[in-house]
Each structure stands twice: as structure tokens, then as C-alpha cells.
Amino acid sequence: MAPEYLYDAKNQQMISSSINSRNGTISLLYGKDETLSSKRYSEGANYTLVTWKQKPMPGWYGTNMNSAIYSVETMSVQPGTNHQLNLRYQFKTGPSFDVKNTIPSAKERINFILTQPKAVQP
Amino acid sequence: MKNVSSFFYRRIFVLPAIIIVAFALLQLSASSFKNPVVTAEIQVPEEIKQILERSCYDCHSNQSQFEWFDKIVPASYLVAHDVEVGRSRFNFSEWDSNPPAVQEVLLWEMVNAIEQEKMPLERYTWLHPDRKVSKAELITLKRYVNTLSGRHKIDTAKIKRSVIQPVQVTTNHPIALNGISYTPAYKNWKVISVTDKYDGGSMRVVYGNDIMIKAIKEKKLPFPDGAMMAKLVWGKQRVDKEGNTFPGNFQNVQLMIKDSKKYSSTEGWGFARFDGLELKPYGKTAAFEKNCINCHRLLVPQNDFVFNIPTKPIK
Fold it and tell me: Scanning B78, B91, B246, B292, which has the fewest C-beta atoms within 10 Å of its C-beta?
């Protein structure tokens, strides 16, 4: 078993998953649960986007699954001056991030986090 | 002296004679090897058909070919048993008894069973070495399953977000036919894996409760009683211009609950599946769990019968 592939999102809950076949990655977007029902871009909101490299599932040809963590992106919306909101975004590389890989533009990633629809969960 | 030797000779001849007669009589009890009627044979390209016929049909069809040595008691009992079990799992001669989606899952399962050398059974290929599936044939089979419709299924339907509630809102959770109740508690568990199940066009997120997470962290197998998993399954939407695929409609939630005593007949795991936003319990009878465990038992016994745990890639 490889417990190092687990990511503990603490008090955040899953918003949605996504697969990127071009990069061979698979991601989960987490958010603080009280913000899940309100607007994505609101004061106090916190998000974590965890991305893993994909690998074939041992035991089942026909499924790819997460392997080592590629990156952990965090974003928070905080009160700023003059009733403006401050947006903080950070990209941290994980063990499967290669030096040859490029770090995507923050603007692109913030947009990705803010616009990703919530997956339907019963 | 003479008496002793005649007694001795008598034993030498009589004993084998008794054994031979007994063996011959035993053959009369041999189970009759019958091939039931072929009702709907599987329709696949000729090169696939040839592999299935040679390597699988003896146990998984009504067109079994038996060698003379298959019919010798007591070996014949084992052969009869294997054929009976094989036909009950899936039968290429009664292929339409499975819904189309199940047919595809079975074909992927076969590829996996062959790849992991679980099938054809070793005790069968030992006496029938020509029935083995070669590496080249496995590649042919893999190429074939990748052409099946589920492989490229895209969920283009408008995403349904809630069920129209009946007038009387009940607080009771749906219960599967084997008594396992749905629980929304998984929402507070931790995710143990995220998957792209491209064979059937779905994507999944698997949660584990605290007991499950602790066991994974301690690399403890088998999983302890009380370990629970919930797998959420969605369709896959069309790939966008950045190469991203997002979840489409919610398909089902599947539970696995460890209780080594209560679920001893299914390797200690209780299985349940709830379909659609209505969370309709899956299965027509409580025997649905046999379908679950048959595949888990065949392919992942080394992981305590769990597919979705984080594991290192196999080199």
C-alpha cells in the first residue's frame, strides 16, 4: 500500500473531481463546507486543489487512478482594504512534479478553481 | 511354506482385482457431461471468437468439448464442478441473458483474469496446455475491449442535481436487499482514491472511514472490522479544450463494509449499491453481492479484495 498518496483535506469537503488526459493527471477540488452552498468567490472561502499523477490501477486493466501527488494549490478569499477582497493563491509542487514541468499561470488556475461546477452528491 | 506362498499370491492378485473392479464400478457413477442448448451465442469478430472458443468455451459455454480423461472418476467430478461454476458466472452460449452493459464488464473482467493468469484455470491448462492464452492473443483481446461502446461513452445529458421529492419526505435511508443501509456519513470521511474508469466511461471518488484510513496508513491487511468505503460514480462529460474531463450525472454510490463474521460468505465484506439520485437499492435478490465478490475474489485477493486502495505501480 502507498499511504503517501493520501491527502488529508482536514475540514474541507470535496467539491468535484477532474481528469486531465493531456497531462496524465487527476484532481480533486476541496472547499470549506460553509462556502460550498454560497458563491465561490466570497469572504472567508478556502479551497485546495490536489492533483495526482495517474497510473493504471493494479488489479484492473480499464481504470486509471491517482498515484503520487503532483501539486497542491491553495486559494483563500480574505477581507482587504476599502471593502475589497484579497485573493491569495499558492502552488506547491508534490513528489511527482518534475523539474521539466511548468507551473501554470496563477490567473488560469484561479479561474479553474472558481468556475469548476460542483459534482452532484446525493 | 507352500500355504504361506499361496496365501501371498492370492493377495497379490486379489487386491488389485478388487481395486480395478471398484474403479470400474465407480465409473458408472460418473456425472453425465451434457451440453445444454445454445440459445444466443456471443457475437464477436472471428479472431476474438477463436480465442474464446479454444481457451474459455470448455467451461463457459454449452459447447464444451470433453476429452476421455475428463470423464474418469474421480477427476470427472472436478471437471463437472468447474463447468458448472464456469457456466453460472457467464455463458457464451446464453450471452444475451446479460444486459449489454454487463456483457462489456464481463469482457473486461475476462481480459483482467487472463492478464493476471487467473484464467484459464491452472489445473485445466495443466492437462490441456493448448488452451492457454498467449501474450499476443491477450493484446488482441485488449485491443478488442477498447473498441466496445462503453470505452468511449460521454455523458452529454443535462446534469440532474436533485430529485423531485415526494410529498411525504421520509428520513429513512434506503436499504439494500442484504440489509445494508445507505449512509450519507461518507461526506465526512477522507478520500482514498480518485479514478478514471475508462472501460465504462465513468469517473469515481472513493472515501474511507477513520478505521479504513488508519489501516491504510499502517499498511495493515486484512482490513479490520468496522472499516468502510463509499465509492461515488459519475458519468464523464466531453473533454474540454484544455484536456479536462468533469463529472457528468451522478450514477450510483457503492458501499463496502468490513465485518468478518457477519459477511463471512463474501470474504468479510458487505456490499451495497444505490442507483441514481433516488438511491434505489441495486439487485433483484440479495444474491447480487455474489456478483461483487466473484470479481473482487478473483482479481484482488492480495489487497483483502479491495481494488481502490492507494498502491504502488506494478513494475
Answer: B78
